[in-house]
Amino acid sequence: MVYKCINNIQSILFPPRCPCCGNTGESEIFFCAGCYAGLPFNHHACRRCALPLPSRAATDSLCGRCTRSPPLFHQALTALRYEAPVNHMISSLKFRQRLQLVEPLAKLMIDRLNVTQDLPEVLIPVPLHPTRLRERGFNQSLEIARLLTKDLLIDLDWRSVKRVRPTPAQTGLSEKGRRRNLRSAFAVSEELQASHVVLFDDVITTGATLTELSRLLLRSGVKQVDIWALARTPVQTPFIC
Questions:
Q1: Are residues 92 and 119 in the same domain?
Q2: Cβ neighbours of residue 55 under 8 Å, at least 6 residues apart?
Q3: What are phi and psi of 81, to 5 degrees?
């Protein structure tokens, strides 16, 4: 009761600023009503890989790629499409250290996850290599994952999966090149005991990294791997299975 009163007073004295336009935002969603209504929510998407689908596609459809060759993971859930202004917010968080965006973005993801009942035992944020982590100063996926696990009351595991080899950017690489780029890039601890695990990343693009991590987790004894991400690129790019 006391904490609720304090939060109410803080919201009156220091109202949130909308991450998009800078005007006063709504206390529950951070964004102003207009900007929130204009966000590219990924409501109509492939139920397996979260690829945005045409509005004419049936609800709960699969995309062509997942119909022909399902990914290794069980299901992907995303809150948004990777379009403006979402792409600008995620880039600002990652490359301009705008850590004030962590909470609004986490809130959008939490709202998306509140519709699912299939919660995992453990959430694992996609790791950065130590060199990249030192350069950036933080792992954006881990920072958002902290808030997700706190709200959803599930365990956060940021130790069991490590990126042990630095990798160049995947952009412009062929399918074979992406596989080679990620070969031996990750390691999974033998101590991982969970049966149902979720990998969390900020954006799903080609899916190569998430596929490689799913492969390692399944080989280590995990029974079900799901993917959660803030956003999914709308362009059809095949998963590297």
A1: yes
A2: 44
A3: -90, 145
Read off the CATH number of the domain in which 207 is found. Answer: 3.40.50
Give the range of the structural domain holding residue 18, as residue numbers without chain letter. 1-38
The answer to whether the pTM exceeds 0.85 is: yes
- The CA-based angle 229-204-115, given to 5 degrees, is 30
Q: Which of 147, 126, 105, 139 is nearest to 197 (CA)?
A: 126
Same domain (yes/no): 30, 98: no
For the segment 198-225, what is each residue's pLDDT rounded down to a tens digit? 999 999 988 888 999 999 999 999 999 9
Residues in CB range of 48: below 8 A, 6 or more apart: 62, 63, 66, 70, 71, 75, 76
**Rounded Cα gap, residues 140 and 236, in angstroms:** 25
Helices 140-152, 102-113: crossing angle, 10 deg rounding? 50
**Amino acid at the residue 118:** D
CB of 217 within 8 A of CB of 197? yes
Count of domains observed in the chain: 2
Residues 85 and 162 in one domain: yes
Burial (CB < 10 A; 0-12, 13-18, 19+), residue 54, is exposed
Statement to judge: residues 12 and 76 lie in one domain: no
**Pair (118, 4) in one structural domain:** no
> Which stretches within 76-226 are classed as H helix?
86-95, 102-113, 130-136, 140-152, 175-182, 208-219
